[in-house]
């Protein structure tokens, strides 16, 4: 008996030691795919237990206004990667933007977080080490080459085809390279779907800077030659270098921009579209392309250029350096004419968008005397009190679109039609991380029930 107990104790001790070694390996491994693979069965079990216990629990009342009002406020989706808090703004796996700026690894001599670190966080829920981030940078750089048919497509598209249409077209054509589509056709077991979606997603993210840079050069720089992707550099550095911008400050801005625009819950048009199309087991390339078509809409990704158009209107009608009194009069006139103030208000937020705040801090550090930035700063003082006085605006504070275009203009990227492509490159991080997890968790095809107005009226009369 003593021998049995002693043997059992030794075995348990060795088991704990082995588990400790595995845990340490999981904590420090630079292999993101292996890291995710270790987390999937844990998350599958957690969700299975939760659904077993609470599967019939009610979480939301749906009103007629919600049904006709774009489903606003209906809790009908699950998004693991981020949550939009009304007061604190976006949280990536529980971390606020200030948290991410403080905790995520940076480039050597850099001050802003690397998007690679944000992607690791979205995928694992953990703050990565520098080595882990460096490995993601290497992975993306090594996957950056485009197949010849995509290069030919981009080089032969007319320059009057909108940059977002070109981005979606290139993503669709990349479907020919889909590892997931090939694996599905060969009959791979559904438990392996996520692995191939992961590979496609990593390939796509690696190729996006090249695609986006080709679009920029072809549309606005006369087809100028691209630079070369450096496998020793980070994703943002390579992107700005391919675009033809060599300013270290612009590269820093791009690191910040690509990080803060990456994810915004699962219900916005681009994120929801990628999830919806992916739920039909469309490959990541096709799903991403569909999301980009949604992002191209003026009520979604095009909003920042509408802000710039409005700022130019102020400069032309009021002057380049208007007083607060002149701005107040112009804004009140704008509202009385039935127009909105672009860059202000948000469907969920009830305070200043933290994405606006971090860009404002960047501007204060790098371009405090820029006239366009100073105009934006004045507007920030004037607009919220005016919107509050109307009594009709739930959120009188600026959102991310009120500032991002101003920063891009300062560093010489003045082509407003291209800005949404930058947004799309960034948004790939969030929507593809969610898509990988959707396949890992085996989420089904999305198919909500719809009814006609007549049936809805009859149902309400019956009640």
From TrEMBL:
One of its GO terms (biological process) is citrate metabolic process. GO terms for cellular component: mitochondrial matrix. It comes from the Eukaryota. Pfam families: Citrate_synt. Keywords: Transferase, Tricarboxylic acid cycle. The keyword Cell inner membrane does not apply. GO terms for molecular function: citrate synthase activity. InterPro entries: Citrate_synth-like_lrg_a-sub, Citrate_synth-like_sm_a-sub, Citrate_synthase, Citrate_synthase_AS, Citrate_synthase_euk, Citrate_synthase_sf. Pathway: Carbohydrate metabolism; tricarboxylic acid cycle; isocitrate from oxaloacetate: step 1/2. Homodimer. This is Citrate synthase.
């Amino acid at each position: 008996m003593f021998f049995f107990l002693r043997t059992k104790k030794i075995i348990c001790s060795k088991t704990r030691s082995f588990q400790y070694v595995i845990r340490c390996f999981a904590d420090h491994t630079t292999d993101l795919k292996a890291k995710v693979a270790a987390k999937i069965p844990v998350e599958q079990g957690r969700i299975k237990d939760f659904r077993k216990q609470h599967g019939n629990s009610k979480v939301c009342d749906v009103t007629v206004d919600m049904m006709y009002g774009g489903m606003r406020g209906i809790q009908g989706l699950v998004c693991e990667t981020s949550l939009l808090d009304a007061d604190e703004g976006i949280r990536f796996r529980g971390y606020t933007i200030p948290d991410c700026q403080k905790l995520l690894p940076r480039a050597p001599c850099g001050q802003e977080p690397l998007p690679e670190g944000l992607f690791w966080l979205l995928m694992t829920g953990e703050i990565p080490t520098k080595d882990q981030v460096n490995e993601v940078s290497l992975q993306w750089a090594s996957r950056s080459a485009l197949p010849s048919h995509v290069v030919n497509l981009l080089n032969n598209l007319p320059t009057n085809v909108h940059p977002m249409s070109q981005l979606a077209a290139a993503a669709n054509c990349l479907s020919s390279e889909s590892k997931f589509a090939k694996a599905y056709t060969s009959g791979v077991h559904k438990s392996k779907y996520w692995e191939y979606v992961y590979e496609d997603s990593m390939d796509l993210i690696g190729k996006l800077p090249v695609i986006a840079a080709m679009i920029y050069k072809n549309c606005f720089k006369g087809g100028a030659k691209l630079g070369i992707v450096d496998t020793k550099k980070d994703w943002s550095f390579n992107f700005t270098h391919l675009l033809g911008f060599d300013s270290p400050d612009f590269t820093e801005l791009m690191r910040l921009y690509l990080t803060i625009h990456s994810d915004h819950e699962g219900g916005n048009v681009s994120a929801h579209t990628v999830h919806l199309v992916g739920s039909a087991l469309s490959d990541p390339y096709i799903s991403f392309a569909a999301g980009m078509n949604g992002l191209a809409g003026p009520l979604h990704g095009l909003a920042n250029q509408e802000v710039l158009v409005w700022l130019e209107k102020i400069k032309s009608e009021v002057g380049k350096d208007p007083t607060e009194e002149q701005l107040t009069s112009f804004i009140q006139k704008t509202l009385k004419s039935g127009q909105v103030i672009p860059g202000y208000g948000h469907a969920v937020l009830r305070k200043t968008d933290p994405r606006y705040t971090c860009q404002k801090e960047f501007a204060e550090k790098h371009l405090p005397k820029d006239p366009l930035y100073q105009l934006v700063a004045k507007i920030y003082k004037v607009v919220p009190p005016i919107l509050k006085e109307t009594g009709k605006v739930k959120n009188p504070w600026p959102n991310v679109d009120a500032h991002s275009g101003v920063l891009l203009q300062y560093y010489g990227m003045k082509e407003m039609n291209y800005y949404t492509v930058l947004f799309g490159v960034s948004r790939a991080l969030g929507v593809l991380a969610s898509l990988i997890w959707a396949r890992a968790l085996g989420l089904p095809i999305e198919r909500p029930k719809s009814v006609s107005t007549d049936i809805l009226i009859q149902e309400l009369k019956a009640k």
